[in-house]
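Appendix C reproduces, verbatim, an entry submitted by the partner laboratory led by Prof. M.T., so that reviewers can inspect both the input and the predicted structure.
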Amino acid sequence: MTPAARSQAAIDILDAVIDAARGGGAAADTIVARYFATRRYAGSKDRRAVRELVYAAIRRAGEIPASGRAALIGLAADDDAIAATFDGSDRGPAVIDPGEPVAAAGAMPAWRGAALAVSGVTASDQAALVGRAPLDVRVNRLKADVAEIAAQTGGEAIPGLPDALRLSAGTNVEPLAGAVEVQDAGSQIVSLAARAMPGQRIVDLCAGGGGKTLALAAAMDNRGELIATDVDRARLSRLAPRAEKAGVTIAQPVLLDAGREAAVLSAWEGSADTVLVDAPCSGTGTWRRNPEARWRLTPQRLDRFVQQQRHVMGLAAPLVRPGGALVYIVCSLLDAEGAAQVEAFLQHFPDWRAEPLSLPAGQPRGQGLRLDPAHDGTDGFFVARLIRLC
């Protein structure tokens, strides 16, 4: 592909991403994959170059652009090489008209920025939310040695995380499946709040594809009882093959029926040493990885997440034994989903208390800790450890 053809491909993909963001369609990475699945002629360098253009344009545009062309013209305004590709050639974009729309630069849409500011995330810190994310992995201690993986990959240790490595961007980790799991350092840090130990009974209530489930199993040395539940069949179905590759045998997937979760969960009532609630949320802390997600979030959608989080915490509380812990995690920097949720829980359940956390990163926020890209170099998370009193 010529540089002009790459720019036109980026515009076509950006149009699809913008339409999906407005209509609740597929994520950008899915759209990129679908685009190239039908264009086998594009080589790996072409795919990489187009993808970089797409994501650079997405990260630059705070408000959702009028079109893919407007998004890329915005990028061209800062880069003469990109501007030169608007040459009107057969496979390239038309020459830029001085009067046509240009996507404005910004970290995020105005109301999202205001909501984050109210939650103590300053305008300067907000820019880090759409920066490039590093490639972090968790070495699976059940099957691999950290030093050996570090020597093999050139990975660098991450302070405070003995099983974590930060790899160079683009490192191919597929040959290491089972030995390592791609997992942001922040996700690994908040998982430590569970204090998982061999022989415990732990419920991972919103397990999804099982990233934190596998981390818990490794911390438990694959000994004990680990129940992984979710209402999403497709996501939960990913756990079994991942667990097999990782050598994890204690993780028991349990599919829940949305709205009827309590009937199934009653079998574990009052018996769990720890219940991990990695709750559904706005994902503001992961916008580095999914920058177009900031275009999707609406006040109404945020309200739905807040209600879901309260519902899930209400399901989790009865499962914890006296003296046990509920670990609440959201990959969000908004207080409505983090500190405020914990305060509401403690008011509703007076026989619980928050336990102070000491983790390798994070700053106190309400009754928990908050990690963010600007201060910790990780994805954004809020975590709290709540203890059921005897």
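The longest helix spans residues 3-23. Additional entries are available on request from the coordinating office.
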